């Protein structure tokens, strides 16, 4: 059990919780704030949306222990909020709810849009609410309700807030998983970038024309120094990438980590290091080591795990060996169960 100290709806809270307890279960079961609903519990439906340091966040996929010292606001904490009060009236007027199960999370996300958007643009509202699913209304009434509140507030000369009141760069609640002194110990020293060598080859492959080229650009409303300072925090960046972990505290000249990927029965682990943060050609080639681990070898453990047990074979209708394990849909060690894979194997090998 861990003791979690945070502020919920402007009230200081200190409660014991398991490390695996989600923020949604924490506010519902520990604090009896059941207005935060649970739907998919995968961060998809948006019914569990709360404000984490003033930013909408999925509480079902956020660990409570990671919110140490954070400011949490649930739908109960928005009873006296001016924007939420106007949204509730607009939802009633525009028939923007039926069963009401998605409404708490929808109101939290809609409040963020009312604060940020400069005008009542329907497309931007629909994009902003795309993370909140409603199985009843068809979204028409919801969009109209948000449009009416934005239009009314702009008509009263209430200007939008830049970034909706966000004060930090990065994901909602980022930087709260470790104390400041621990994060400072992992903060690498910023080094001057080496000049780009004129002999460095461009990032293209000779005699190859890609079928599809994806080019996406966007601008961040932050000064470059602040953006690069965030990318200097290697530990913080790694914490945002699924399956990525650091094997040791990063240094300016050396970063070593592990990437674990699992796709069905195939599990791969990639270990790498020597990724120097310079612009020289050799430094952009990190040393990589990877190994593939079969999910569940079959047959005799002393045999090659890719070779099936001869006792499991039978002769097919066309005189071709058929693996019973493949016939039942269980492919060992990630090998495909197609005809080509079976035709290369003969009984007794």
Q: Would you give an account of this structure?
A:
There is one protein chain. Helix 2 crosses helix 5. A five-stranded mixed β-sheet has the order 2-1-5-3-4, with helices on both faces. A four-stranded antiparallel β-sheet has the order 6-7-8-9. A two-stranded antiparallel sheet has the order 10-11. It is globular, with a radius of gyration of 27 Å. With 349 residues, it is of the alpha+beta class. The longest helix is centred in the middle third of the chain and has 16 residues, at 140-155. The two termini are 53 Å apart. It is built from ten helices and eleven strands. The chain has helices at 23-30, 82-93, 103-116, 122-128, 140-155, 180-186, 224-232, 234-239, 324-327, 339-343, and strands spanning 2-8, 11-17, 49-52, 55-58, 71-73, 244-246, 257-263, 266-273, 287-294, 313-315, 321-323.
Helix and strand arrangement:
Layout: E1 2-8, E2 11-17, H1 23-30, E3 49-52, E4 55-58, E5 71-73, H2 82-93, H3 103-116, H4 122-128, H5 140-155, H6 180-186, H7 224-232, H8 234-239, E6 244-246, E7 257-263, E8 266-273, E9 287-294, E10 313-315, E11 321-323, H9 324-327, H10 339-343
Helix pairs in contact: 2-3, 2-5, 3-5
